[in-house]
Amino acid sequence: MTSLNIQGELPPGISKDVLEGFAKYILTQEAPETNFEISLLLTNSESMREYNLRYRGVDSPTDVLSFESECLDLGMGCMKMCDIIIDINQVFKQKGENTYKEEFCQVLVHALLHLAGYDHIRPADKKKMEDAEANYRKQIPRELE
Q: Residues 57-92: pLDDT tens digits?
């Protein structure tokens, strides 16, 4: 079971229900034995810079940060309490030829894969994560394109 609590304004044309369904799909594929409770904060670059400095020691904005708890056993299997913070300004700045919605979804896929255990520090892990991102980008629901 995956739940998504959103704070902030979603990009135009993206509904919470479709976004939550897509998150559930990815996390069920990648971590089927784990339940996720995700808080998604959509913020601006100044706030993101503060979060990035506080949690990573980097004094600049970034597109996305993701945080997860250890698996908690609440009698219904593993439960992870997670936070995702997305800088909506940074997403817009880096979108290139993508639409804002496409870039937003790609950033969200990246964050969800981190919650499922992916990382991109070592080259082999980076390749594995990039392949998974490419796979899920092809599966973005039409409502999110």
A: 999 999 999 999 888 887 778 899 999 999 999 999
Residue 43, pLDDT above cutoff 70: yes
Q: Which two tokens stand for residue 33?
A: 């034995």
* Gap between the Cα atoms of 142 and 19, Å rounded: 11
Structural domains of the chain in order of their starting residue, each with its CATH number: 2-144 (3.40.390.30)
Is beta strand 72-73 parallel, antiparallel or unpaired with respect to 78-87?
Answer: antiparallel
Distance of CA 17 to the CA centre of its chain: 15
- Going 137 to 31 to 85 to 130, the CA torsion angle's sign is negative
* Phi/psi at 122 (5° precision): -85, 150
CA distances from 102 to 3, 95, 105 (A): 22, 8, 5
Max Cα–Cα distance, the chain, nearest Å: 46
Q: Which amino acid, 67?
A: F
